[in-house]
Amino acid sequence: MRGRGETQEDIQTRLNRVAMGMNHLPLADYADVNDDFEQATKEFCAIIADEIMRQQEQRPTERRYEHATQAIPIYDGEYLRHKTLPHHPTTLLLPGEIPHIAALRALEETLHIQAPIDHLLRMKLNKGSFTSPASMNVEQEDHLKRILFTYIYLLQERPQTGPDWEWRPFDELEMAGVIRQALQLTPHS
Questions:
Q1: What average pLDDT does the segment 164-170 reach?
Q2: What average pLDDT does this structure show over 107-133?
Q3: CATH 3.90.79.10 spans which residues of the chain?
Q4: Cα(first)–Cα(last) distance of the chain, in Å?
Q5: How would CATH label the architecture of 64-185?
């Protein structure tokens, strides 16, 4: 310490802290005695490397997200449902895609119809271009979080569908009450 130019007062302060530090030694995960600077430096670097490796092994895998959207087509008091999962036209969102645009794309790709945006049921009136979903569900599976946006689409006519599709009474839908309220707000109901 004298060789580094420390004053006698600084040296005494550090020596006084040695006793306090030694009292806490049993609580430490590592101890590195600095009586040989080069050896202490090597040990210190090895401790850091070991700790980094240990923490990387314990770190959970990065959480991933999967965003999907589904559209429930409704016509004349009934909704269209596929007999197998997924029951409604569903698609993963493309990078940067807005959920309600993906819902329209799912309808077009699945039912082979034109799906204009003005037939998408607005769950609440807003001035912006974003249409709120009727519901949003989040499921956790290991390190994957699945987020599903559900939209309601008001068909103007019954589309041609295959035998795997069926029309069911609107009241069977879990969210029928919420949809009924939204229909009262919507001019195209």
A1: 94
A2: 84
A3: 64-185
A4: 84
A5: Alpha-Beta Complex (3.90)
